[in-house]
Each structure stands twice: as structure tokens, then as C-alpha cells.
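Thought: the user wants the 3D structure for the chain below. I'll pass the sequence to the structure tool as-is, report back what it returns, then summarize two notable features.
Action: structure_tool
Action Input:
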Amino acid sequence: MDLLKQKGYIIDYGGISSFNDFENYEKFINFKFKLISPKKQLSKLCDFINMYKDNLNYDWYIKIRTEVTLLDQLNFDDFLENSINARTRVYRGPKKILYGSSLGGEGIWKHEKGFFYSDKEEEIIPDDHIYIFHHNIIELDGFKQTELYPIISENEWFHKYQWDKYNIPINPIGINMNFTKYGHSYSGHINIE
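Observation:
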């Protein structure tokens, strides 16, 4: 983010947590916005956006979990303004995207497969670790309050179900990153060679 600030981007941070544990991060991050909520991750984000909607006038938003370390700079020129821009958990289609999947690559998910090739795009399930969206998605109600779906967990399929309801497409992108959880580090990807 410091590199983006050097390029002239104005960056503010919002923290969303189940507990008032912001002091663990405030030595690194100055939060302009904070929300404490016991809900699951997408419901928390919807509550955050709806609570602060009148104060959110940014071009781009990055939803990122604390376990994510970006290994390359994000390029906003590659993102679509009318879509959720994300790596995928599952992708069935013709695209080959370096660092486009949270499965495969090195680490604990190296034997799992998230990319399946098809002549046409059949399925895109976004990764919920990190995604980028334009302010247009807020205006299109992409983060309107979540409802009970036939999915128990607010996992990647829950995210997809939410955005399908509001006709928000998923734009599969590559993000070179590590995700560390439960003492493991992994960075899934598909090789485009």
C-alpha cells in the first residue's frame, strides 16, 4: 500500500473484527473506520458498507484477510469496474491465469485442483481471501444485507450466491500472494506455460 501512496493514491483503512482487537494492528495501520461484529465475513462486510455508506466515496476497495501477504503490486488497470475482481476457488473455462486460483501451487493445497479447462466459461467461484471491487458495486447493491441461503457457511459459494442475486459478475484475476493460516503458508496458482 505504501507503493500505491507514492504513486498518488489516497488510501484509508477500515477494520472489521469479531472482537475489539484493533490494537494488534494499529501499530501498523491507522484505521479510519472500525466495526466489531460477531457475524461471518461477508455479513460483516455488508454491515460495514451499509453502516459507512455515506462516507465511502473511494474509487476502489480491497477486501483482504489479515493472513494474506501480497507478493506483487496490484494493478488496478487490470480490474473491471462492474465486477468482483478475485482469484478463484473453482474455475471452469478457457482462461489461463497465473496466480488465478487459491488451489494448487505450493503449500497445503498443492494436490487440489481449482482450474478445469473448458471451451466456454461454465463456472467461476471467487476466492474470499482477497477481492477488489469498484464503488459501482456498492451502488449496484452488491453488498446489500445478506440473507439466509441454502448454504450454511459464508464460504466462497455463499459469496457467489450473493453476487449472482444482484447480477454482479466475477472477473477472475491473478494475485501473487501467500495465505498463512493454521501455521501453513500457501499460494495457489495455475501455470500458464
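Final Answer: Structure generated. The domain at 2-186 is CATH 3.90.550 (Spore Coat Polysaccharide Biosynthesis Protein SpsA; Chain A). Residues 93 and 121 are 4 Å apart (CA to CA).
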